[in-house]
Amino acid sequence: MRDTSHDLGADLQSAVARIYSRFRSERSEGELGDAAVGVLIALAKNGALTLTELSERARVTTGSMSQTVNRLVTGGYVDRARDPADGRRMLIETTPAGAEVAAEARAHRVSWLNARLAELTPAERATLAEASALIRRIADS
Amino acid sequence: MRDTSHDLGADLQSAVARIYSRFRSERSEGELGDAAVGVLIALAKNGALTLTELSERARVTTGSMSQTVNRLVTGGYVDRARDPADGRRMLIETTPAGAEVAAEARAHRVSWLNARLAELTPAERATLAEASALIRRIADS
DNA sequence: CTGCTTAGTTATACTTCGCAACTGTGCGTG
DNA sequence: CACGCACAGTTGCGAAGTATAACTAAGCAG
Hints:
2 copies of one chain form a homodimer.
Chain A: H1 8-26, H2 34-46, E1 49-50, H3 51-58, H4 62-74, E2 78-83, E3 86-94, H5 96-117, H6 122-139
Antiparallel strand pairs in A: 1-3, 2-3
Helix pairs in contact in A: 2-5, 3-4
Chain B binds a DNA duplex through helix 2, helix 4 and strand 3.
């Protein structure tokens, strides 16, 4: 079977793809899409950000992000405002409604996962905590 | 703010989302989309599968999978054939061209990741190997 | 003012997905 | 056998997300 040193890259890639697909399928109806929720969470955590900052965080083009922000503005979740210091920039900020949705979405997003994690041993959770840090380091490298 | 032991679920979810987005941006072969490549790889690994089997593996509806298979058929990467044992079923199988694309995609898909993993310590790789198994277990639970 | 750069928007196209309506096949029951 | 139900797929429609490319607008030299 799976010797862990055999092909860790393929193994990790497939495990990540698998659980990511599970995340998507656990997402409740009516909820905003993945990209939109990601923007709301980023704004809730960091305050107002420019379009370019948002697009860099999500690793998408500014064109794509502009459309995602359009959907959020239409839904009343965020506001656009010109940066007073640089008229080319737009500062995007959550509305109160958007901040609330961000908090709910974030809680719901991980509720299924937290239930699974609660079934693991402390040692297993520690392994996953270490792995999370490693994965994030790799992703941001 | 960022106590990993406090909210492991959110931490793991965000790490997975982040590296998954990195996977997407590292993939160069723009020819086929993610879902289509996933189907080719599944078929290359398992031989012919029915539409329902494919849709369950990818956790999508049969309608979505049917369209993905349509695109692959149009591109000449897979063939459809009725199951002789059950006329309702379709057996989907890679063409030689599809098998080749699957092998290339599979290798390319993890080449970036393997390069990163090579920079880690053996202990870190062991942590990720354990975590992969745990993540897969959670995803399939 | 002219020209270049940066920030963002809009238009178009493509992939993926779910939902719903539909066809066609298999199978059991009266 | 005929009818009806269950199962396997297909198709059409709409939504989200993405990239590319062409465009506007603002800042910044010179």
